[in-house]
Amino acid sequence: MELLLTTLSGLALWVFLALLVAMLGRIRAALERIHVSLAKIAMGVRAIESETAILKAELPTTVDTLAQLSGGAEVIAAGLASAERRLAEALR
Fold first, then answer.
1. Helix (H) or strand (E) holding 52
2. Domain positions in the chain
3. Which of 6, 15, 55, 57 yields a CA-CA distance of 20 to 30 A from 23?
C-alpha cells in the first residue's frame, strides 16, 4: 500500500512539474510577444522624438509668426465687417 501511495505521489509530482513547465513556457512566450510590441513602441517614440526635436528651437519663431497672422486676420476681419456694413446700408 505504501509503495502504491509513494508511486502515485511521485506520479502526481511529475504531472505537476510537467504542467508547471508547460504553463511557464506559455507565460514566457506571451512575455516575449509583449517585449516585441514594446520594442516597436519604443522605436516609434524615438522616431517621433527625433522628428520633433527641431520644434524646441523653432517654437519662438512659430509663435511670433502666428501672432503676426492673428493680427493680420483681425485687420481682415475688420475690413470685411466694414464692407458688410456698407453693403447692408446700400441694400436698404
1. none
2. 1-52, 54-92
3. 6
